[in-house]
Specification:
Elements lengths: L1 H10 L2 H21 L28 E2 L6 E4 L15 H13 L1 H21 L5 E12 L14 E13 L6 H68 L4 H35 L22 E3 L3 H7 L1 H22 L4 E13 L11 E10 L7 H68 L4 H35 L11
Parallel strand pairs: 2-5
Antiparallel strand pairs: 1-2, 3-4, 4-6, 6-7
Helix pairs in contact: 3-5, 4-5, 5-6, 5-8, 5-10, 8-9, 9-10
């Protein structure tokens, strides 16, 4: 290889180098003169955005909830990058951090981003000339009826050929620039898809933890009900033996106990499913370890909620930003298709090397050869293929534009849904809280009456069942309020822009 390179340097005659430099300079000038690239320059769609998220409202409601669980909205408050920390649950914080580090969907999205960036770098290589070096030794025989091409007139000979080929395609009409622009936009889209994937993952973990806490509270209420009904059944059987109640009363109590006992395994099954889900979201197999437990009392409802202006939503939603990047990629492909219909110029040194019958003579005086060539190709007739490819690219751009508008509308719908859920679930929580307090008070009175002998165990059964249902409703209402807050954080974008380097 060293000998080859020395030979190449020996062959560089001044007039040859001048011709090469002149040719490449001319190509560079042509590229500069061409200026702009073919096709449209991308511009963000100028769509009018609403001034409010919900119908008939120009400002967010001042608060949602009762005196004990009121949440107020603050348009000046931004969403922290680790929004889940606002629930003040160490177990939730640890689980979400583990999920972000080990969940395969995040790893896959990150690998896709690396692949997209490598494609950008690969396409940018087309801006530079390509240089190839080759060495080809051959053994040949010339037919006796032909004269030998060698000065020695030998019919059997070896031929060693070493050459360097240089070619360059000036990007006169911007086909490569548009292709690079398209790939860069796709890489940008993938970057936002990572943010969208992470946001979806963190919201799913938070919702799964809330669901787990709700089921755990309902299981606790059911177990207490089973215990209370077992006690009532024992008392009813004792009273039946004394002749104070009928057999039908005992049967009623037995049916009520059986109903509560049947409900318990169903709740436990749902809890096991949530536990497996939490483990899987953290990137582990269900049998690898025990997922942390969650308690509704350990999840604090944030008192102040951010509510960014509608005009900022398109900047904060990662799915909207990804859709916009896909739109830019489609716009650049229109330019690529347009440039492919224009002339294509190739300039280069087709061959520059040395040929000799022996390896030792390679690169010596008289063995060198070179050739310069340029070509201009203009599509003349292709059955309309290039025209229709440009039409397809334009239609793909219009499709991406419609998908972008749809993504924006969905983003506003998500925020509106979250705000409506917060408003109405706050009312439901107040009602559930009042109902649970009333049922607990009624049950307490009934237990005191039973202890004094004023009522029978059967009379207390209705109060027991009402109390259990009230506790179920309260656990569901509290979980809904927490899940609504998660939904709002997710709908507003999750605060990824506040993360260092994000």
């Amino acid at each position: 290889m060293l000998t080859m390179m020395n030979g190449v340097r020996a062959m560089r005659q001044p007039h040859n180098i001048f011709k090469l430099r002149h040719a490449f300079a001319a190509a560079g000038c042509a590229t500069l003169i061409a200026g702009c690239a073919a096709g449209p320059d991308y511009a963000r769609p100028n769509a009018a955005l609403p001034t409010a998220y919900t119908a008939g409202a120009s400002e967010p409601p001042p608060s949602a909830g009762g005196a004990d669980d009121a949440q107020r909205f603050d348009a000046a408050l931004d969403i922290p990058a680790q929004w889940w920390q606002l629930f003040h649950s160490a177990a939730l914080n640890q689980l979400i951090e583990a999920s972000l580090q080990h969940n395969p969907t995040v790893e896959a999205a990150q690998a896709a981003l690396r692949s997209a960036r490598e494609n950008v770098d690969a396409q940018q290589g087309a801006f530079y000339p390509t240089v190839d070096a080759s060495y080809a030794p051959t053994r040949q025989k010339v037919a006796g009826t032909l004269a030998s091409p060698l000065a020695s007139n030998a019919y059997y000979y070896n031929l060693h050929t070493a050459q360097v080929t240089v070619s360059y395609v000036p990007d006169l009409f911007g086909a490569n620039r548009r292709q690079v622009e398209s790939l860069q936009a796709q890489a940008e889209s993938q970057r936002y898809q990572i943010e969208a994937t992470s946001l979806t993952l963190t919201a799913n973990v938070a919702n799964a933890a809330i669901e787990y806490a709700m089921l755990d509270a309902q299981i606790a209420a059911t177990r207490e009900m089973v215990g209370a009904q077992t006690t009532l059944l024992t008392m009813a059987r004792r009273q039946l033996a004394l002749g104070q109640v009928a057999q039908a009363d005992v049967a009623t109590q037995e049916a009520a106990l059986a109903a509560s006992e049947v409900a318990l395994p169903a709740l436990q099954k749902q809890l096991a499913v949530q536990r497996n889900l939490l483990t899987a979201l953290a990137g582990r197999y269900p049998g690898d370890g025990t997922a942390p437990s969650f308690d509704l009392d350990a999840l604090q409802l944030p008192a102040t909620l951010p509510l960014t202006l509608p005009a900022s939503l398109v900047e904060h939603r990662p799915d909207v930003r990804a859709a916009e990047a896909e739109l830019q990629a489609a716009s650049a492909q229109v330019g690529v298709a347009a440039a492919n219909r224009l002339p294509n110029i190739t300039l280069g040194v087709n061959a520059w090397g040395s040929s000799a019958s022996t390896l030792g003579e390679l690169f010596k005086s008289g063995t060198g050869f070179w050739s310069l060539a340029a070509s201009v190709a203009q599509p003349v007739f292709d059955g309309g293929a290039l025209k229709h490819r440009q039409g397809a690219a334009q239609a793909a751009y219009e499709q991406a534009a419609a998908q972008y508008r749809g993504t924006v509308i969905t983003a506003f719908q998500n925020v509106a849904d979250a705000l409506n859920a917060i408003e109405y679930d706050a009312v439901a929580l107040r009602a559930a809280t009042s109902g649970e307090r009333a049922a607990a008070k009624s049950l307490g009175i009934g237990k005191r009456q039973l202890a004094l002998g004023d009522i029978s165990p059967m009379a207390l059964l209705a109060s027991e069942q009402a109390s259990q249902q009230a506790r179920f409703n309260l656990a569901q209402a509290r979980a809904n309020r927490l899940a609504d807050t998660v939904a709002l954080f997710q709908a507003l974008g999750g605060g990824w822009w506040n993360r260092g380097g994000g």
